[in-house]
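Sample entry copied in:
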Amino acid sequence: MFKKMFLVLPLLVAIFSPLSVEAETSIKGVYTRLTLHQFEFDGKTVEVIEFMSFYCGACYSFGKSIPIIKGNFPEKIKWKTIPIYWGKGSPKPGEAYLLAEEVGKGEKMKKAIYRARFVEKKNIG
């Protein structure tokens, strides 16, 4: 009986210990907790929100794979792009993209800005 108890007890501890650690996660520092955005999944489409910067080389590289991702799931993905910048550079490329997006030319503008920055090495600010 004691052998079974010694086998079961460590198993129970191993199963429930990650749950208690994860539930009490805290972040030290001063910050404001924002209300959570509720995402609703209708079982048909998934909303992808892409945060990107026109000054970011990794964002430029990732942008090349977006058509492949969209092509694999054409009816299942709703894609939204949000341009950001970290203070170095200019918000103007993001503003140009958002204005183009309003008239249905967002992807064309995105490609043009990335091409100017990374291929033609132009100042986009």
The mean pLDDT is 82. Helices lie at 2-23, 57-63, 66-72, 92-102, 106-119. The CA atoms of residues 68 and 74 lie 10 Å apart.
